[in-house]
Amino acid sequence: MLNSRMLNSMLNGRRAIALPVLCLLLLGITGCTLPRVNAEERLFLPLAVDFLGEYRLPPQEFEGAPVGGLSGLTYDRQRDRLYALSDDRSNFGPARLYTLHLTLDQSDPANPRIGSVEVESVTPLLDEDGQPFAAGTVDPEAIALTPRQTVYIASEGIPSQNIPPFIDEFDLETGRRKSRLKLPERYLPAADASPRGVQENLGFESLTPDPSALGTAGYLEPFRLFAATESSLLQDLDAGPPGELPPLRLLHYLIGEDQATLLAEHLYYRDALPPEQGEPGLTELLAIDAGGQFLSLERAFTPQTGVTAQLFQMVMGNATDTSGMPQLQGDLSSIQPVRKRRLLNLGDLGIRLDNLEAMTLGPRLPDGSATLLLVSDDNFNPLQVTQFLLFRLR
């Protein structure tokens, strides 16, 4: 085996050696072809995920409402608690988020798993007047923890009733709305009913903060927040290359103490599936570092094949800013989308998948590695389950 000192000596000419011989020593083969890594591959972190197990939350009620519809999930490392957002439109109970305590079973250190998930409390969401949202006026789907003891919550809106989507900030303790992000007009229903804005039940499903600020309580410096729609905007449905699904859009905000600025917008292409598996939607984004590295979750469903889900790595890289384009038309080949590559087909896990919609980094394992948690939305359907999937991210 060559150590670094021997190799440096050879390369600096202090020990004469012919190039073919050096190739043999380095590669142990008869050729001199070094492995090639293209520029695209160098953009991605060398990640892998290990499946550690499934946990199903028992059906239950808490303070008079069923625990279900979990469509957003975020982890508070300072408190060691999960905040789970229900997508109840205030029909079964008030629009709300739950505080959950997840306990890891580490009786077998080599194979940790979820021991239990306990519902500790529920926080109703309130408008700026301190009133609960009326039934059918909100569709909460995504949640992101901030470093200032608040959460941002995204609602898909209900375009058929001219109820626009929103991304609003709520106090974590009281549930009261504190502020609202300004959404570009292209995401909102048009006053003249022309095709514009998010599609029905396909609006904002993904919300994630830059994780670099979350480790410091009371952090007041600006931080970044990312949001994405589940599918394409109405005015973009005919855009994109033939044979591919039309792109959806990803928003990039800078959040300050007193204001928020939209920095950029980028295009995201979903991976098309065989027709019998349905059309996938982007159900979650998760920023995993401050350098523009993400995980994305795409999920599809048909009654024939059930749920299909895939996990991707995603990088912003040199993605084109499309924030000045109210509508996508024609040839988009000059627009660089965010880059992604598949990390895991969850169909390979050998378990029945439910309606996976939420994802977060969770508590660390005893060996120091990070955990990744996915959770399903049971749609308040007794034939479905609230399914937690635990992974080691390495």
TrEMBL record:
It comes from the Bacteria. PANTHER family: BLR7070 PROTEIN (PTHR37957), PHYTASE-LIKE DOMAIN-CONTAINING PROTEIN (PTHR37957:SF1). This is Esterase-like activity of phytase family protein. Residues 66-380 form the Phytase-like domain. InterPro entries: Phytase-like_dom. PROSITE patterns: PROKAR_LIPOPROTEIN.
